[in-house]
């Protein structure tokens, strides 16, 4: 009997073209003589936690200590009782990345111990599509080798119940922890293991291949690696996350609950009407970080704490309580004081902790995205004391801190919120939001690559995004639009039975080609293309098979397993997306895929891609361009039938950005984008950047700045969480994401207000075309691979000062908008006295007039690198 299970779905990934001709494209690791090890067993239940120990003795701490560690699904490493790190980074299970070990500072003369808590999900997670149990470690301590093998001791961590149920569709681990069953001191070197500790079992499998290629059975889903030679271990390609402590800012409210039903049933099944609330405060604050509660009547206490802003990390608290006291820790992105008594309104975001007598320090094993932490304390009599409530925040160790100062308070708030949002969403993956899915998408989420590079100067994380996302290519040729993640593997099965509208999104695969191209433009790096370009071409080949011969367009409905999304705002009918999807594919083929093919010597593929893109563009014009109105109408073929005219900002923006309007007639498109009439659909925030890009191109920065001051600054999350939410409006105490990924404001800052973009890949030559609009004070830094560009502008139009730096080894081309010019002839002084009429000494050296654009009235100047330029702009 042929089974439609994850076995067959995963087999598609193992036998698909995504794995061909890619060996050696990225670095690989062989951790031999280390072995994959696990608890001696023939099956592992979901959410099983193991404890592994390895003791070794040192006569002295050597200068050189290095190694690697990898586990499925997650590990928390301790050395001599000190927490070292948490990992690994989410990855395609065929190509996992081992984390480096830099533990010299934790070692000591004499006995040492490595102690690892290892959690195996066994169930799909937004950060783990599929897996098999396994742990491997190789550590070189001077001339000594410490490697995972049967000499390691392992024990099942009974403080976490094995076989624990799943928390949510894309969250595997619903944590429950009983401190009474946790072995004291096992992470210390002087611990004496008991009979519950046994020798680890070595798994059959090589130390250069992933856990999928071992012989350990995966009983839950009964899959296997059909081609074990495919999988390889790779070294971690990004740094480990930076962690620091963030305490709560205050206790926002406290109250009593009387339970009419078993609270365990409530948390398991979210049963309504299970308790009665008394909002009389139950907590007494003893000092800045300590609160106490005294109970004698069996009621439960609820303490709700507030963080200063929404962050991502590991919630933690200390409680001094009687043995058997139970604490449910709930987290939430948004809460209104006086609203729901329990924060259990956000994807079952709770964990449970059972206390031993006295002082207990608890920290969640997995991370959360939260601004609110709540402790529900029950099963106690007498006094309990709560302290040290907060969160161990995790963020990417950016090479540069953002430097943004805007004189406009509303826009400054938006920029601050965007930076904090990016800290939450761009970590070891680049995701949509950490509060719900924690999954890596292209498309609307891929725009983050611009901001990561321009704001922080980080290129390793975008490159990892390109490599790991590309690995989610199906054998049919479409990308699983969120990868590496469980979501789309499950949706493929559901689509077979007609149980979901969410198939792999083809438009995200289109966006991914742009991601590759823009990364190349920003960095000049082409090394990623050895792995990604064959997959991009395979996805292109798949798209060409979809063309409808009746109209020479790609359909958006009845596609089988995949689907077309584009946006969920503003389209009244699915067929209205045909225009946007085809313009998008057309632009991708002509302006992203074809150039990448030419860059790598694939001339024939470039010709094919460009021809296909041109054909789609012509078909769009035939079917959707209105010559009378000089604009694309997304329901033009059905306008009379539907009795109304429909536009969408995504269609119009794409046409403007890629010069797709016949005869260059963009005026009406720009007018609609600026005026937002009722008949125009409007994208949700993560896609709003397309409209803003088009308005910037059309020199309508006035509209863009007004958007930032009103629509963006008016977001509830900006004022309350210092983040950017998923939708244009958000309410507390529900499932909405208050820290998502709509980072358009940072793109506007760098590519609009400063107008900085590379003219050559890697910024050897770049353009500065500033559009400060009515901003009278702004200073910020745009990071490039050639160095930072410090940009500042002050004053009003007609009497404005502009300054910027040009990194050494580069050439800038300054474009001044019509109506504003430098009040002197643009001729360089060779004597070093600067330019006449106002430039400071030496500032004008190397400035020469390249071009007067008669059509736009703009002037273009060339500026050699290694200098700071200061100009006064006058109104003409």
TrEMBL record:
Pfam family, one: Bac_rhamnosid_C
Domain Alpha-L-rhamnosidase C-terminal: 755-821
InterPro entries membership: 6-hairpin_glycosidase_sf, 6hp_glycosidase-like_sf, Bac_rhamnosid_C, Galactose-bd-like_sf
Residue stretches spanning the membrane: none
SUPFAM superfamilies registered for this protein in UniProt: Galactose-binding domain-like (SSF49785), Six-hairpin glycosidases (SSF48208)
A GO biological-process term: carbohydrate metabolic process
Domain of life: Bacteria
Name the record gives this protein: Alpha-L-rhamnosidase C-terminal domain-containing protein
């Amino acid at each position: 009997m042929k089974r439609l299970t994850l076995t067959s779905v995963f087999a598609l990934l193992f036998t698909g073209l995504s794995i061909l001709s890619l060996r050696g494209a990225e670095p690989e690791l062989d951790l031999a003589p280390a072995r994959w090890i696990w608890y001696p067993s023939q099956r592992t239940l979901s959410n099983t936690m193991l404890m592994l120990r390895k003791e070794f003795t040192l006569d002295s701490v050597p200068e050189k200590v290095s190694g690697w560690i990898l586990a499925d699904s997650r590990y928390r490493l301790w050395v001599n009782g000190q927490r070292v790190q948490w990992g690994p980074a989410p990855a395609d299970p065929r190509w996992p990345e081992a984390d480096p070990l830099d533990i010299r500072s934790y070692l000591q003369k004499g006995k040492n111990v490595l102690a690892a808590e290892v959690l195996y999900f066994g169930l799909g997670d937004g950060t783990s599509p599929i897996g098999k149990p396994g742990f491997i470690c190789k550590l070189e301590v001077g001339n000594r080798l410490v490697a995972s093998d049967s000499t390691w001791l392992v024990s099942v961590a009974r403080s976490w119940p094995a076989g624990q149920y799943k928390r949510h569709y894309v969250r595997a681990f619903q944590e429950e922890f009983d401190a009474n069953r946790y072995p004291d001191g096992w992470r210390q070197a002087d611990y004496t293991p008991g009979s519950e500790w046994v020798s680890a079992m070595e798994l059959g499998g090589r130390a250069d291949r992933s856990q999928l290629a071992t012989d350990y059975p995966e009983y839950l889903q009964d899959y296997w690696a059909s081609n074990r030679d495919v999988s390889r271990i790779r070294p971690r390609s990004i740094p480990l996350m930076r962690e620091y402590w963030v305490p709560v800012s205050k206790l926002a409210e406290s109250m009593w609950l009387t339970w009419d039903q078993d609270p365990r049933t409530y948390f398991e099944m979210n049963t309504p009407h299970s308790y009665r609330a008394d909002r009389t405060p139950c907590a007494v604050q003893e000092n800045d970080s300590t609160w106490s509660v005294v109970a004698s009547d069996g009621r439960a206490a609820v303490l709700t704490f507030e963080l200063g802003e929404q962050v991502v990390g590991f919630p933690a608290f200390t409680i001094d309580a009687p043995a058997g006291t139970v604490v449910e820790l709930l987290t939430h992105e948004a809460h209104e004081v006086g609203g729901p008594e329990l924060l259990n309104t956000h994807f079952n975001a709770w964990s449970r902790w059972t206390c031993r007598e006295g002082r207990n320090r608890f920290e969640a094993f997995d991370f959360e995205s939260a601004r609110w932490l709540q402790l529900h304390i029950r099963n106690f009599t007498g006094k309990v004391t709560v302290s040290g409530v907060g969160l161990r925040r995790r963020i990417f160790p950016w090479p540069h801190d953002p430097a943004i100062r805007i004189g406009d308070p509303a826009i400054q708030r938006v920029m601050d919120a965007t930076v904090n949002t990016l800290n939450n969403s761009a970590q070891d993956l680049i995701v949509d939001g950490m509060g719900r899915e924690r999954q890596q998408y292209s498309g609307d989420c891929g725009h983050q690559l611009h901001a990561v590079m321009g704001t922080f100067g980080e290129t390793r994380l975008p490159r990892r995004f390109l490599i790991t996302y590309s690995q989610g290519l199906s054998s049919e040729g479409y990308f699983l639009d969120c990868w590496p993640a469980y979501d789309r593997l499950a949706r493929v099965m559901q689509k077979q039975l007609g149980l979901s509208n969410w198939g792999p999104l083809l438009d995200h695969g289109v966006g991914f080609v742009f991601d590759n191209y823009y990364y190349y433009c920003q960095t000049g790096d082409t090394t990623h293309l050895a792995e990604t370009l064959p997959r991009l071409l395979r996805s292109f080949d798949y798209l060409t098979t979809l063309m409808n011969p009746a109209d020479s367009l790609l359909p958006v409905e009845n596609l089988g397993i995949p689907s077309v999304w584009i946006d969920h705002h503003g389209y009244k009918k699915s067929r209205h997306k045909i225009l946007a999807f085809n313009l998008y594919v057309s632009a991708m083929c002509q302006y992203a895929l074809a150039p990448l093919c030419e860059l790598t010597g694939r001339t024939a593929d470039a010709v094919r891609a460009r021809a296909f893109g041109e054909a789609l563009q012509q078909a769009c014009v035939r079917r959707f361009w209105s010559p009378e109105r000089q604009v694309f109408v997304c329901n033009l073929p059905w306008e009379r039938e539907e009795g109304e005219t429909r536009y969408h900002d995504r269609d119009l923006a794409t046409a403007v950005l890629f010069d797709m309007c016949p005869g260059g007639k963009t005026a009406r498109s720009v007018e609609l984008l600026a005026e937002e009439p009722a008949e125009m659909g409007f994208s949700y925030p993560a896609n709003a950047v397309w409209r803003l890009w088009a308005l910037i191109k059309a020199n309508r920065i006035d509209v863009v700045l007004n958007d930032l001051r009103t629509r963006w600054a008016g977001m509830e999350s900006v004022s309350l969480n210092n983040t950017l939410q998923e939708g244009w409006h958000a309410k507390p105490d529900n499932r909405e994401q208050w820290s998502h990924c709509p980072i358009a404001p940072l793109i506007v800052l760098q590519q609009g207000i400063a107008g900085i973009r590379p003219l050559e890949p890697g910024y050897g030559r770049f353009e500065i075309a500033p559009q400060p609009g009515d901003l009278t004070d702004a200073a910020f830094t745009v990071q490039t691979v050639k160095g930072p560009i410090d940009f500042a502008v002050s004053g009003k139009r007609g009497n404005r000062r502009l300054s910027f730096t040009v990194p050494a080894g580069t050439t800038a081309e300054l474009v001044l908008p019509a109506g504003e010019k430098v009040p002197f002839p643009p001729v360089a002084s060779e004597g070093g006295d600067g330019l006449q009429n106002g430039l400071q000494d030496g500032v004008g050296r190397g400035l020469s007039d390249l071009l007067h654009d008669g059509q736009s009235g703009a002037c273009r100047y060339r500026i050699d690198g290694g200098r700071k330029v200061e100009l006064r702009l006058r109104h003409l």
